[in-house]
């Protein structure tokens, strides 16, 4: 009985869709639906028609993530900096060992939710494992850069509603989403400040994917291919919000983005930290995860 009522309702919706389309568009629409049904002949519920009839259309991203349209493929990114779920052994890990115990715990997952302390004292390697455990991954630097666009990147006069880059929230690090204005154009919070965020990849002896990176300094140019600084200067550049590039051009260096609660004007959407080893942990470094966007219908 339940399936019949649901099917009847969805069928009426399907008829309304056809009625609202012109005759030419109806032919195109029905042709698309027909071809898709053939592709899913073994499971009609997964075809376009099946999802309309059975009410199974999917959102592109889970509720705790936001959609980021991208030329290379849309993706979802956590709306907030990751925190440890309530059933994790350690809500606020104090070092790599406690983060390891969280990751090894069967039911402990990284969560994206407001008004929670970010999961810090976790290495880049561990952050990648935590994301993978949730069916996600660390964002690339290019993905992170795109998601961060539009986040207010002020140089001074930071208030409680702004991104936390000058101890301007009640706590350091602060609860996720505390800065109501610290939100990007896609709706992701705290990409600037509060804590640095690990991203995927590493710098090897000053090279990123074989390309030499500039010396430490204020960002004055950005590569369109990978989002990394292409040039730096000794003095702040207003074109890049006085954001700073930290780097040690020796050995393997993990990559973090955005700045933390006390970087002031040097934090921002163009701020990079390639100064620590992938095993480094600290109170000022956290992470968030990404995943491929669903296709909807």
Would you kindly provide a written description of the structure presented here, covering whatever features stand out?
With 297 residues, the chain is of the alpha+beta class. It is 24% helix and 19% strand. Strands 9-8-10-12-11-5-13 form a 7-stranded mixed sheet. Strands 1-2-14 form a 3-stranded antiparallel sheet, covered by helices on one side. Strand 8 and strand 9 (229-233) form a beta hairpin. The chain is globular, with a radius of gyration of 22 Å. The protein starts with a helix and ends in a 5-residue tail after the last strand.
Task: Describe the secondary-structure layout.
Layout: H1 2-20, H2 23-39, H3 48-54, E1 65-68, E2 75-78, E3 83-84, H4 96-104, E4 110-111, H5 124-133, H6 141-148, E5 196-204, E6 207-208, E7 211-212, E8 217-222, E9 229-233, E10 244-247, E11 252-257, E12 272-274, E13 285-287, E14 290-292
Helix pairs in contact: 4-5
Q: What number of domains?
A: 2
In percent, how much strand structure appears in the residues? 15-25%
For the biggest β-sheet, the strand order reads: 9-8-10-12-11-5-13
Instruction: Please report the number of helical segments.
Output: 6
Order of helices and strands: HHHEEEHEHHEEEEEEEEEE
CATH class of the largest domain: Alpha Beta
What is the share of helical residues?
A: 10-25%
N- to C-terminal distance:
25 Å
Chain-averaged pLDDT: 86
Strand count, sense and barrel status of the largest sheet are: 7 strands, mixed
Protein name: Sulfatase-modifying factor enzyme-like domain-containing protein
Domain Sulfatase-modifying factor enzyme-like: 72-291
GO molecular function, one term: formylglycine-generating oxidase activity
Organism: Candidatus Falkowbacteria bacterium CG23_combo_of_CG06-09_8_20_14_all_49_15
């Amino acid at each position: 009985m339940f399936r019949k009522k649901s099917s009847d309702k969805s069928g009426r919706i399907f008829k309304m869709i056809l009625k609202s389309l012109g005759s030419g568009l109806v032919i195109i629409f029905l042709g698309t639906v027909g071809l898709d049904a053939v592709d899913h002949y073994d499971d009609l519920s997964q075809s376009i028609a099946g999802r309309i009839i059975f009410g199974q259309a999917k959102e592109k991203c889970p509720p705790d993530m936001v959609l980021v349209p991208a030329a290379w493929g849309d993706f979802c990114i956590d709306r907030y900096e990751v925190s440890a779920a309530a059933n994790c052994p350690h809500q606020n890990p104090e070092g790599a060992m406690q983060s390891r115990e969280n990751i090894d715990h069967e039911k402990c997952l990284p969560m994206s939710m407001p008004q929670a302390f970010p999961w810090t004292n976790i290495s880049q390697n561990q952050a990648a494992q935590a994301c993978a455990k949730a069916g996600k991954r660390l964002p690339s630097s290019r993905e992170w850069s795109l998601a961060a666009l539009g986040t207010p990147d002020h140089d001074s006069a930071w208030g409680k509603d702004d991104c936390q880059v000058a101890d301007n929230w009640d706590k350091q690090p602060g609860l996720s989403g505390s800065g109501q204005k610290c939100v990007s154009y896609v709706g992701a919070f705290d990409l600037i400040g509060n804590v640095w965020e690990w991203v995927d990849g590493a710098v090897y002896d000053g090279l990123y994917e074989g390309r030499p990176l500039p010396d430490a300094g204020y960002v004055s140019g950005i590569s369109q291919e990978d989002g990394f600084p292409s040039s730096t200067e000794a003095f702040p550049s207003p074109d890049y919000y006085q954001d700073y590039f930290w780097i040690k051009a020796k050995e393997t260096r993990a990559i973090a983005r955005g700045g933390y609660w006390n970087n002031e004007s040097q934090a921002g959407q163009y701020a990079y930290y390639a100064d620590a080893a992938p095993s480094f942990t600290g109170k000022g470094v956290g992470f968030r995860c990404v995943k491929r966007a669903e296709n909807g219908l």
